[in-house]
Amino acid sequence: MGHKILTIEDETAIRKSFVSFLEDYDYAIIEARDGAEGIEAIKSDSPDLVLADLRMPKVDGLQVLEYVGKYTPHIPVIVVSGTGNLYDVVEALHLGAWDYILKPVEDLNILLFAVKRALEKVQLSQENRKYREHLEEEVTEKTEALKETNTELQNINKELRTSLEEKGVLLREVHHRVKNNMQIIMSLMNLQKPLYRDAHDARLVEKSIHRIQAMAIAHEQLYKTNDFTQISLEDYLKGMVDEILRNKTSVGDELDVQVESEELYMGLELAVPIGLIVHELVDNAVEHAYPQGRKSGLIKVNAVKQQDLYTITVGDDGAGLPEEINIEDSNSLGFLLVKTLSAQIKGEIEVERRGGTVIKLEFRCQD
Fold first, then answer.
1. Cα separation of 55 and 36, whole Å?
2. Taking a C-beta distance cutoff of 8 angstroms, is the pair 219, 252 a contact?
3. What region does 320 belong to: left with phi over 0, alpha with psi -120 to 50, or beta?
4. Where are the alpha helices (DSSP H) in the chain?
5. What DSSP letter does each residue of 241-286 carry, written as one string?
6. Is residue 361 within 8 Å of residue 348, measured between CB atoms?
7. Are strands 49-52 and 4-8 parallel, antiparallel or unpaired?
8. Cα 154 from Cα 142, distance rounded (Å)
9. Per-residue pLDDT tens for 47-96?
């Protein structure tokens, strides 16, 4: 038999269907009826991969993810769940889920593809670790040789430069492929839009596409830089605002959106949540700040830093955010994302309603 796969699922019929299907592809399947049994199976059987439901009695899938992340982080976990709740998806991915598949899984080949991809990624990671260890051994040997001759020193410097260039090419390719994969996802979602029955559902899909696009822009910016660890916040925000305006066919030429930022650079772990927050706020202002056919106005995005405190503001001179709308309690998906992502970077949101709306985000440097 091939790789060992642990499937944790409290619904017997679903669990058995996974077992039957995957055994046909020469996988050895271990079954668990809930999270508690699953954790015991992880301890005793050391599976190569885990398929876990989220909603289970006793111990749920999120607790399984916490256990794996703490004790066996090398084991990939794919969540297969019937809940499409945004919080559950974000929490599962935050806890280290490698993939998230919604039930019912009408085509089990989707599950098979996710399993193969995860196992291939593990194999590549192992090979990369061995390769890295091998390189470290070589460097150690060559470092000893440096003491003997200056000529050998020059040779090793040349090899190190070549290795760095190769890593640079690899990182560039990784970000390029991530951006391309996001483009593929957006294209697939665009193809599905005609299948939705009403304009509201199609609009929700369109908003999701634009959010993915906001993340793709960050990878594109990183791909175009020589430093693959940080991007210019100003360039990122300007590129994202341009995409928002390009996608808004109803926006008049007199609506002015300005982006002003100090020379700030940050990594993807900070840039992406900030970009998504600004995307939601600017998109909301463009759509709702200028009602009754008004096409002119000014929206300003500003980013500054004082010592370790970042301040990002999005303001407009429109109708103003209604008093009854509270970002902290709003059921809007956009404001829910703003609140969730602000908490992720340990930031605070402040709303001012004077001559329009100004929403300020403050957070401290997390270096």
1. 13
2. no
3. left
4. 12-23, 35-45, 61-71, 86-94, 108-146, 150-192, 199-224, 233-247, 268-288, 333-344
5. HHHHHHH-TT--TTEEEEEEE-S-EE-HHHHHHHHHHHHHHHHHHH
6. yes
7. parallel
8. 11
9. 999 999 998 888 898 999 999 999 999 999 999 988 777 888 888 889 99
